[in-house]
Design goal:
The strands form 6 sheets. A 4-stranded antiparallel beta sheet has the order 1-2-3-4, with no helix packed on it. Strands 5-6-7-8 form a 4-stranded antiparallel beta sheet, with no helix packed on it. A 4-stranded antiparallel beta sheet has the order 9-10-11-12, with no helix packed on it. The protein is 2% helix and 47% strand. The chain has one domain: Neuraminidase (6 Propeller). It is built from 1 helix and 23 strands. By secondary structure, it is mostly beta strands. It is globular, with a radius of gyration of 19 Å.
Length: 333
């Protein structure tokens, strides 16, 4: 276990993990009761071995917004870039009457030692990054925000962000995308080779039907195909995609569409398209301790990193407890 809250500030979600200067770092969103409640902040914890973790510290705290309420901060990933530990988060204003996020702004903070952080850099993007950025073989940096993909060739990741071109709404109405008009979000990026990429999206809301959707790019993220429904099932949650040192592609998520985000599954693929070898990595039951808005899901929003010969998976339990699972790569043949 990384962290379990007490009687207050018991909403814990949007986890991410990184390894920097021989230390593990994890971040998460932390709210008083429920998801996206005013005052939601970004927390950080640190560990030398992945077993014993420091007490959470506030990394970013919201200010008062236009409507007199505290704003909402949502972390968008922790990662290493140019010898710095970096964190993205979105600043959202709330009106107190709807759940709409007003005037979202994406910020980045950096640290050379994991302790002292820069002032926030404004990335000039009005998006919530669903995953930490992907750095391609060419050095280009990409991130997803709902169904859009953004990229920059600035090695610092601070400036030059552009939206990848798409023509999602200009195709023949017979295509499945325009028939269904799915609400797509939380896209996970895979890189196959020079300039060849794909993104798997969660479909949610009224159009959710239990399957992931996919787009592809052949020009390193500058333009993207129309989304197509895949045969990859999903329990209406975020998935994680990556690549093992042996070249295999891997997926971590909750593909059983008939459950409350359980079990947590790891799937392998030789080509990044057919994931035909699966492992159940966790299926234990966690009873929720504190009710709150949108608090649900046995295994929520998995994230992973590879350090030495192990795969580390961070995941939330019912959006109130943060756990870490360690997997020996020798087990994944």
């Amino acid at each position: 276990m990384i962290f379990q809250p007490g009687e207050d500030w018991h909403y814990v979600h949007h986890p991410s993990i990184a390894y920097f200067n021989k230390n593990f770092y994890a971040i998460f969103s932390n709210g008083r009761s429920g998801e996206d409640d005013p005052g939601q902040r970004v927390m950080i914890v640190q560990s030398t071995d992945g077993n014993r973790w420091t007490r959470p510290q506030v990394l970013a705290e919201p200010q008062q917004g236009k409507w007199g309420l505290e704003k909402v901060l949502t972390p968008g990933g922790i990662f290493v870039l140019q010898d710095s530990l970096c964190v993205l988060y979105t600043d959202n204003d709330m009106d107190g009457e709807t759940y709409k996020r007003h005037q979202p702004k994406l910020y980045m903070v950096k640290s050379a030692d994991g302790l002292h952080w820069t002032a926030p850099y404004d990335l000039k993007l009005s998006v919530f990054p669903c995953h930490r950025p992907t750095i391609t073989m060419s050095g280009r940096i990409l991130l997803t925000g709902n169904r859009a993909v953004y990229y920059t060739d600035d090695p610092s990741g601070v400036t030059g962000w552009k939206k990848g071109a798409d023509d999602f709404d200009a195709r023949d109405m017979s295509l499945s995308f325009n028939k269904i008009k799915p609400s797509l979000c939380e896209g996970a990026i895979l890189e196959y080779g020079a300039d060849s990429l794909s993104v798997l999206f969660r479909s949610t809301g009224k159009t959710y039907n239990g399957f992931l959707w996919q787009i592809a790019s052949g020009d390193n993220g500058e333009s993207w195909s129309i989304p197509q429904q895949t045969n990859f099932t999903d329990a209406n949650s975020k998935s994680y995609l990556g690549r093992l040192p042996n070249g295999k592609y891997y997926y971590i998520g909750t593909p059983d569409s008939l459950t409350n985000r359980v079990p947590l599954v790891l799937a392998l693929s030789d080509d990044g398209f057919l994931f035909d070898k699966t492992y159940i990595i966790a299926k234990d039951y966690y009873p929720i301790r504190h009710k709150g808005k949108w608090k649900n899901g046995q295994f929520g929003y998995p994230y992973s990193i590879i350090v030495d010969s192990s795969l580390y998976v961070v995941v939330t339990r019912e959006k109130e407890k943060l756990e870490l699972i360690k997997i020996d790569l020798e087990q994944l043949k």
